[in-house]
UniProtKB/TrEMBL annotation:
SUPFAM superfamilies for this protein: NAD kinase/diacylglycerol kinase-like
Transmembrane segments: none
Domain called DAGKc: residue spans: 33-172
PANTHER family in alphabetical order: SPHINGOSINE KINASE, SPHINGOSINE KINASE RELATED PROTEIN
Pfam name, any one: YegS_C
Keywords: ATP-binding, Kinase, Nucleotide-binding, Transferase
Name of the featured protein: Sphingoid long-chain bases kinase 2
């Protein structure tokens, strides 16, 4: 996979059965025949470094399984947002697929790499996933485990489906994209804190929740659904907009969401106290909380959210990544990306 001039990215290409890669690609006939590139974007620091270790173990099997299908291009991220740049480079170079190797954070960056200046990049490149992160919540919607060998089999089969993508827009008009869940207020604040304790594994979500509850106040907000009239929503504890079902390390917060059906699921928790979470924790994780008092749900295509009394301190996140503070507009791009499943 040739890089663009002056590119700072480093892709390692493995052409199986071809010891002289350069020679093969300089002849017109060989260029016409050559297989397309699968770019594996690896976050070696994911899951406290476990992602990098598992990836090294996986590589021999990956080479064998995909030997007759593609060029395997490995690119290791070096820090925040690097996966976005890698993905955009791969798409410009005509990669057949970009596969996120890691958790929801790595996937989140790769998905944003499919867009530029708020718009989808025109390409036939597909998105893939080898879930090897702390939470891997997006994979749960499909019933996938953190089994990289199963993931390689899915990629080898090459089945594709159109994947919906959520779009977030802030007061400045800047857009950001997500595939899992966007959330507002308490849960987003908990996510912000939990990201500081990733070294504790899934325990980070409990620590984040405890810190978020400290000083928490339910707030009155206003929402506009699908371009309709503004509605008042009082004493909001958390507001979750799901393209997929899970967040926070396995909590099935938007249980009817489906990232292929052209809709988002809006779930609002109102007037919850800390003990309400404890009492209903098993229902939140099991996805049976929609009948609980103070919980409402509806299907939407877009939603605008703002504070009734602006304070600028209500957290917003998507795919477990801190995005900013209210206000925000969230909408759906149906079938925006081809997804290997």
């Amino acid at each position: 996979m040739a890089l663009l001039p002056n590119s700072s990215l480093s892709l390692r290409v493995e052409q199986f059965g071809s010891p002289d890669l350069t020679a093969e690609r300089t002849t017109p006939a060989a260029s016409h025949r050559r297989r397309r590139d699968f770019v594996f974007v690896v976050n070696p620091k994911g899951a406290n470094g476990q992602t990098g270790k598992e990836w090294k173990k996986l590589l021999p099997y990956l080479r064998t399984r995909l030997a007759d299908r593609c060029n395997v291009c490995e690119s290791v991220t070096s820090g925040p947002s690097h996966a976005i740049d890698i993905t955009r480079e791969a798409i410009r170079e005509g990669a057949e697929a970009v596969i996120a190797v890691g958790g929801d954070g790595t996937l989140h960056e790769v998905v944003n790499g499919f867009f530029w200046d708020g718009n989808p990049l025109v390409s036939t490149t597909a998105l893939g996933l080898i879930p090897l992160g702390t939470g891997s919540d997006f994979a749960r919607t499909f019933g996938w485990k953190n089994d990289p060998y199963d993931a390689v089999e899915r990629i080898a089969k090459g089945n594709k489906s159109k994947l919906d993508v959520g779009s977030m827009e802030g007061p400045t008009g800047d857009k950001h994209f997500f595939v899992n869940v966007a959330d507002i207020h308490l849960s987003a604040k908990a996510g912000y804190f939990s990201s500081q304790y990733k070294k504790f594994g899934n325990l980070c979500y409990i620590i984040g929740a405890l810190k978020a509850f400290n000083g928490h106040e339910n707030r009155d907000m206003a929402i506009k659904v699908d371009g309709g009239e503004w509605e008042s929503v009082t004493k909001v504890t958390a507001m979750c907009i799901g393209n997929a079902k899970y967040f926070g390390g396995g909590m099935k917060i938007t249980p009817t969401a489906d990232p292929t059906n052209g809709h988002l699921e809006l779930v609002i928790l109102q007037n919850f106290k800390w003990y309400d979470f404890l009492i209903n924790l098993h229902r939140l994780y099991g996805g049976t909380h929609l009948s609980v008092k103070g919980v409402s749900s509806r299907s939407v295509k877009s939603i605008e959210v703002k504070e009734k009394v602006p304070c600028g301190d209500i957290y917003v996140q998507s795919d477990g990544e801190h995005w900013g503070f209210l206000s925000t507009k969230i909408s759906l791009l149906p079938g925006a990306i081809d997804f290997l499943y």
